[in-house]
Design goal:
Two copies of one chain form a homodimer. In chain A, 32% of the residues lie in helices and 25% in strands. The first copy, chain A, is of the alpha+beta class. In chain A, the strands form three sheets. Chain A has a six-stranded mixed sheet, with helices on both faces. In chain A, strands 3-6-4-5 form a four-stranded mixed sheet. The first copy, chain A, has a two-stranded antiparallel ribbon with strand order 1-2. The interface between A and B is large, with 71 and 71 residues. Strand 2 of chain A pairs antiparallel with strand 3 of chain B.
Amino acid sequence: VTVSEVGEFGVIDRVIDRTRQRDVVLLGPGDDAAVVAANDGRVVASTDMFVEGRHFRRDWSSAHDVGRKAAAASIADITAMGAVPTGLLVGLACPADTPLDWTDGLAEGLDEECRPLGASVVGGDLSRDDHITISVTALGDLQRRKPVTRAGAAAGQVVALAGRLGWSAAGWTVLTRGFRSPRALVEAHLRPSPPYGAGPAAALAGATAMIDVSDGLLADLGHVATASGVAIDVAGAALDVPRSMADAAQALGVDAYRWVLTGGEDHALAATFDAAAALPDGWTVIGRVSAGSGVTVDGEPYDGPSGFDHFAG
Amino acid sequence: VTVSEVGEFGVIDRVIDRTRQRDVVLLGPGDDAAVVAANDGRVVASTDMFVEGRHFRRDWSSAHDVGRKAAAASIADITAMGAVPTGLLVGLACPADTPLDWTDGLAEGLDEECRPLGASVVGGDLSRDDHITISVTALGDLQRRKPVTRAGAAAGQVVALAGRLGWSAAGWTVLTRGFRSPRALVEAHLRPSPPYGAGPAAALAGATAMIDVSDGLLADLGHVATASGVAIDVAGAALDVPRSMADAAQALGVDAYRWVLTGGEDHALAATFDAAAALPDGWTVIGRVSAGSGVTVDGEPYDGPSGFDHFAG
């Protein structure tokens, strides 16, 4: 059974059936717009696009995987401000012959990513296209905290990391070479596990700047350095290269550090803190902030592309 | 100069330069997420997708037109709840050879539609695709009012309309037949003029149900009838068919009433009110609510497709 056989409104009804409205939703899907609680009088919002063939491949990712990953990217942006996610709005453009199983799986994956966070898919839009494009807008609640922007880092502070680096990039390289293992790397690419709770925890612990690592650690620390008007140096030895990643890199003839330093999509969080701050659980110091500009690794410029530009190359 | 020549971040910088952050924006574009005021502790949100070749054609619409129209569709959904728009988040996927003039024009069109309303483009995402797809998520403020849903219509109430019907559909027909005039119809298709203020005004005047007419009057009143568990009858004589539209219909050999009854994209608002209510300026009674189900015109079922389904045909 395909999308065109049940029609636009049939698909929307099935998506609504597969998603749950949780506490902060005052009016869920099915009307012209949703209404979501914004208890402290502000709403945090971020949007991301996912294009078939660029952000995902249907032969690699199940619909459920795509739903989880698309939700994860937007939710991670919300947590990087120190906020908790409340609602997602999802635009879907897809071919008329898209199986209903696929749109069902997408809805279930989106809902599954939201569930442990108390967030909900509150609205969406469906249109037709010759391939699948998904937009996800996430809304969030700062819970009376100040947003943690990219601009608050200051000389003398430490740079800390929560979550994993390079796993998704390693999994992508494995898949592009035609392999399906190591599974842990491939699964990290298909279904990231961002450290969502680490964002609000960092805000509570006094993080001075924070960013979702989606373009790659060096590129994203570069955004913090630019926005804050500081220099950042990363201690290479502080970055974890797990054995499975090192082995895969050797087998594939690539440099595992490049995955770790430049790979995005794991949605780790990087933040800066006063040197005396007690870091919350899950955060590790990986570098230092000083006067100046730019990002270095062990005091040296990194020799290679530092992150992902959708229009580069 | 194309998008790929300045890169992802270059385009984003240009969009930021071309959009203004107005009062309700607490943190605008350039960070992981935006922060927008939600003064009454709630946020209204709606999302729409615009796919090149389906929702717009670059040979018919300028980039500026596309920006205005894409903004209008999401903003109209916000006003249909009785809310005022505050912020837009815009996802753009486009080919690497998209001219920078086009993305500049899009940003300017989005901002122009927001300006008189006090709303702002607060965030976005840019990705690559083989054609242009735009997602627009609008946020809004209910200003302490109850949201006006589709579900509050009751027998004995009147149905009223604000804004125009059929103009966009007529303009589309004109364009598909290879003509560029009557200009008023063509321009209505390229740049809708939704009656934004009529939504909050209707809410203040006690509207019991309201909907943005985006699928066509009969289809959208059908949504109200279903959600409210009522029947709706439209008085054909109450619907305006202006002379230019009647003339164009005759010249093209089509039925102007079909444009009026089933055309979307003008983003008129339809609402129900108690029969004794004083309607705000700009609202006209076009029908009545009674017990039962379904939508009729002058007491008869309408003979023809009642609206637009992206997957029909």
